[in-house]
Amino acid sequence: MELIKKSITDNLRWLVEEIGYLINPILLKIKGENSQLLAFYFHALYESQEQKKLNHIDPQKNMTVKQFENFVDYFLSKGYSFIKPTDVLKGIPAEGRYVMLTFDDGYYNNLLALGVLEKYRIPAAFFITGNNIKNNTSFWWDVIYKYRTSEGVSKISIQHEQENIKHFKYDQINSYIIKTFGKNAFVPWSDIDRPMTEDEVKTLAESPYSLIGNHTLNHAILPNYTKDEIRKEFIGSNEYLKKLTGIVPSVVAFPNGNFNDSTLEVAEEVGFRVAFNATAKVNKLPENTGKMIMLNRFMSNDNNIRCYGSFYRMGYTPGILKTMIRNKFT
What is the torsion angle, in degrees rounded to the nearest 10, for the CA atoms of residue 190, residue 194, residue 199 and residue 202? Predict the structure, then answer.
């Protein structure tokens, strides 16, 4: 039954994509693209497709460095300007079209992006998970993925296991990982799955094309936590990153994109000026009212950007449209 559902879903997605490839360029000419901001989040980068085949990390639509460069080049060719989160606080011309690049978690391989950023002279924000850096530990979702994949477990089952423990706090997740996979489960297997070192974070922070942001100390999925616990996650991460870089982050990305009223209240209290969720929507150009600005983000996709990019520019993805169609007719 699971395979049948997957087949139906895949076919529906294919149909949506094919229709979109045909009509999006026409709709974009009618709709226009000015006065919008597209923010994207990435996780890891691969040096090559061969690295991806090693299954050391959960793929999560991760790109190769070449695909990342193609992604950047595509949006430049469509007249988009690349900006960093703090630019919206200063004010940006209302008639423009803009892209923000963000990287979540703090993988070592994020440093591979620097060559592209320097080549095109564009910025990106890097949201760092403090304790993974401090302790040189793999991220828990990658631990599940690489061990279960090596055991021959299906990707669907792996995803279910990952989703089921997202309702836990980080200490419960850590206990589950160690109990399930052993005391050395968090030891990285390679440069592919390891986080940056403290020195590498410092190097990244020194680049004129990078902005370091807060991603909590423990990749805490914040609706699972009390206000006091959220505060400790934010402040602890800020203090750690200030120690490494000399700068207190003014921007935050909520782990897994999850937040609630308590999250927003504490984030403003701590002093964040810009916050990112993981809602796949275009942003209207925000006004700096003195309050924290919340921005939506699309998850990056490793498909051919020259085929897929028009979906982002229209403000949706095939997955979103597929869900809308399925809900309407089921």
Answer: 130
Q: Enumerate domains of the chain plus CATH numbers.
A: 33-299 (3.20.20.370)
User: How would you classify residue 16: left for phi > 0, otherwise alpha for psi between -120 and 50, otherwise beta?
Assistant: alpha
CA gyration radius, the chain: 20
pLDDT of residue 22: 75
DSSP state of 5: H
Judged by DSSP in three states, 174 sits in helix
Pairing, β 36-42 against β 283-284? antiparallel
Q: Residue 224's CB: how many other CB atoms inside 10 A?
A: 17
Identify the burial level of 199 via C-beta atoms within 10 angstroms of its C-beta, where 0-12 means exposed, 13-18 middle and 19 or more buried: exposed
Burial of 236 (0-12, 13-18, 19+ CB in 10 A): middle
pLDDT tens for 124-166 read 999 999 999 999 999 999 999 999 999 999 999 999 999 999 9
Q: How far is CA 12 from CA 2, 8, 321, 324, in A?
A: 15, 6, 10, 11
Average pLDDT over the chain, rounded to an integer: 92
Q: Which residues, 6+ apart, have CB-to-CB distance to 299 below 8 Å? A: 40, 41, 60, 61, 278, 280
Q: How far apart are CA 278 and CA 258, in angstroms?
A: 8
pLDDT band at 8 (very low <50, low <70, confident <90, very high): very low
Sorted by sequence, the CB contacts under 8 Å of residue 204 that are 6+ apart come out as 110, 111, 114, 126, 196, 210, 212
Q: How far is CA 131 from CA 42, 46, 77, 228, 261, in A?
A: 20, 23, 39, 18, 25
pTM: 0.92
